Amino acid sequence: MTRSMTRPLLFAAVALIVSATARPAAQDVAGRWTGRMEPTNLSAEIDLDLRRAGTAWTGALVFRAGANGGTLPMDELRVDGDRVRVRTKIEGAEVNLDVALADGLMLGSVRVTENGRVLAEGPAGVARVGDANGRTRLTDWLDAH
Known about the structure:
The protein is of the alpha+beta class. Helix content is 23%, strand content 54%. The chain is globular and about 35 Å long. Residues 5-26 have low confidence and may be disordered.
């Protein structure tokens, strides 16, 4: 191979390596998360357990508000990179949880509707189970919202 042919190949290889390493890797949302949802008229602790098997996702959502609570059926679970959307029901009302990774937390919002009417909406977030610092940062974020 001549020197004039080697140089473009070398530049192409370097450019490929730089572009591959320059893109931030999506953080993995799989695992156990715990936190709160604080919409108007409703405050609840939530636990979110997300598992990935290849490209498929499964999960469980546990809801606790005072004496009420339990595992909620996931009517829909969508994971798109660092974003998680869950659709479920609480006592007939539709609950849409939409969170995305931000600084090691999953932060976003929850919206509760029934028959097209908004019953409650507001902030929601979770931190990884066992991350005490994350739990503190989550509480600060929820208090600010």
